[in-house]
User: Fold these one by one.
Assistant:
Number 1:
Amino acid sequence: MILRSSYFMLRRMLRGYLALIILLVTPLALITVLGMVAGNAMDEQLGVPVINTIAVTMILGFQLYGGFYTMEFIREDLISSKKWRMYSLPYQAHQHAFSILLTCIAFSALQGFTMVLFTQWFYGVDWGNIGFVLVVLLALSILSQLVFLNLVLGVKNYKNAERIGTAYGLVSMALAGVWFPMPDSGVLHFMSTYGNPLSLGENAVYAFMAGESMNRGALSIVILLVASVVMAIVATLIGRRKLA
């Protein structure tokens, strides 16, 4: 039943053209424009072309907002005034919630992977081990979907949940040094290296892209997975009350 529900969820997501434009077309457009500006410049610190770093930041950065898929479908199907139609079916609410979560994780990760392949074919971005990049995208997608699931279940006002979700992405980008460099020491240095999901994803991808800091890359994946487990436990506890 969950797999059948996931199939229909996938069809609904494919009809969400606005979300596809925001989370798929927009990052590709930004990569194209910024890549043209960067030209053949090299990132001296990482030893890779600047277009590579642009692609990594944009694709992983927009992955943080993929959690809005889970947030919107959970609200629409299980929390809004339409929820009684779902509760009247011989299908438990928590099963449908799991179906939504599973589909959104896979869809968001594959959306990111599509951009990875696009940038590799059209812009010559060397991603290293493509299979490992997919693992990173899945890990980041799992965490982001669970974060937004907790927000929609735990925050009473949906608009506030949306604002917190947006802040989650913006703060992660700021800590990752997307707009301005972070200090090389102290708490902010730790937060910019291991204290936000975007940096963790970048650590893992750059480990294979540049062939260095493999231990940092592996540790980053472990942190993402541990954080996901914590978020899953919290979501289970909140969901038992909210969806009962």
Number 2:
Amino acid sequence: MFKFVGLNSTATKSVAMKRLTTVSTRRLFNTESTSTVQAQKLLEAQRGARPISPHLTIYQPQLTWYLSSVHRVSGVFMGFVFFGTTIAFGVSSLFNLGLNTEKLVKYYHEKIPAWFDYTVKGGFAYIFAFHFGNGIRHLIWDTGKAFTIPGIYKTGYAVLALTAVAGSYLFSLGV
């Protein structure tokens, strides 16, 4: 076949050998053996430089995010207060510790300043009103209604309006 093209086999081998000898064998990176501790430190440093993917800062905040987050936090907060109070009264009655509503009310009115009283009552009034309104919103969704983007935003703004009105009403009752 080489004779047909006009080349002999020795000429082809010498061209191929010239090409192989001109290729440079240079490393593009160094390899070093590291200990397990060093490798772990390197890995932690690399992880620290990486962003969390996808990070929330790349998204535009939405009303739905805030309502969902506040609904969860308000539920957990009210649950801790309710169950903490219930457990405290239960343990007190089991072990005869003397905690009752009369003593609690007396302590509250004697020791708690007025500004703190208003803050606590206002906080609970608005948190309860918000959680109640958002719970009604979820019940509406459970029926399959208002489950479109415009419906979700309308019910979200309705919850905020209900929170303002009902929270103010509840706060005025406690003052």
